[in-house]
Design a protein that fits this description.
Radius of gyration: 23 Å
Order of helices and strands: HHHHHHHHHHHHH
CATH superfamily: MetI-like
Strand content: under 5%
Largest sheet: none
Number of helices: 13
CATH architecture: Orthogonal Bundle
Number of domains: 1
CATH topology: MetI-like fold
CATH class: Mainly Alpha
Distance between the termini: 42 Å
Shape: globular
Structural class: mainly alpha
Length: 264
């Protein structure tokens, strides 16, 4: 039996699609203009970006930072949120308040404070993006990752899962990795997507700490070459979406969800 889409629903779908695709189409047309003749159409702007070594260096730095931030956030927060839900539920509102702090404190204030706090740390941490910036981005992504994981843990019965796992002789690491983690995979992926988008687009902290990341490169191009900047914007959009798809494919390819019925 075929389902018919209501006219109003189809209208709103078209409006949403137009809102999303018209700016992209306009940017694409603008990016095809020649930098010298100001005429359409040429792909030279895309060639300029692709053959620029700074493009690949900056995108590599931001992508590695994204993966590092995701890994550190998951390693820190999954055991923490699991233990809070299992043993210390009264701390959930407290952690929720702490998770709101990155929303309240502006990144420009955050980076000034972090530069002062970490000023005495070793140079391999303070002077390298994979040290200082990763630590700053873990803080910046904390609310997104925490609230995603918190929703995932609230959607499952961790007490029943934990008791069933331990009754079969599993220890805490086995329970967390092989029973709990497959059941919160969707929440972990959601937090990872948000973290990836944040790190790939963060400008203020990287700029004030003098690290050359992908957003810094985009800003430098924007200041000098308008048509090339449009091409770069579309490339950055495509690269971010491809990275999210790859992250989704990796997440879906690991393990199966574990469901254990029963009443605690």
């Amino acid at each position: 039996m075929r389902r018919h889409i209501a006219p109003t629903a189809a209208l709103w779908l078209l409006v949403g699609a137009a809102f999303f695709f018209i700016p992209l189409a306009a940017t694409f047309i603008y990016s095809l203009r020649s930098q010298t003749t100001n005429h359409c159409c040429t792909a030279a702007n895309y060639g300029t970006i692709v053959h620029d070594p700074q493009f690949w260096t900056s995108i590599k730095t931001s992508f590695i930072l994204s993966l590092e931030t995701i890994a550190i956030s998951l390693v820190l927060l999954i055991p923490t949120v699991y233990w809070v839900h299992l043993k210390l539920p009264r701390l959930r509102p407290v952690i929720g308040v702490f998770a709101l702090i990155p929303f309240v404190v502006a990144p420009i204030i955050l980076v000034v404070g972090l530069l002062d706090v970490y000023s005495g740390t070793p140079s391999w941490f303070y002077a390298e993006p994979y040290g200082f910036l990763a630590a700053a981005y873990v803080i910046l992504a904390f609310p997104y990752m925490y609230f995603s994981l918190d929703a995932g843990f609230r959607a499952i019965d961790i007490h029943t899962l934990t008791e069933a796992s331990q009754s079969l002789g599993a220890g805490w690491p086995t329970t967390l990795l092989r029973v709990i983690l497959p059941n919160i995979k969707a929440a972990a992926l959601a937090g990872s997507f948000l973290t990836l988008a944040i790190v790939m687009g963060e400008f203020t902290i990287a700029s004030l700490s003098a690290f050359h990341t992908f957003p810094i490169y985009i800003q430098l191009i924007n200041e000098s070459e308008a048509y090339v900047a449009s091409a770069l914007s579309l490339l950055s959009f495509a690269i971010t979406w491809v990275a999210m798809v790859l992250l989704l494919a990796v997440g879906r390819g690991r393990g199966r969800q574990v469901q254990i019925g029963g009443v605690r």
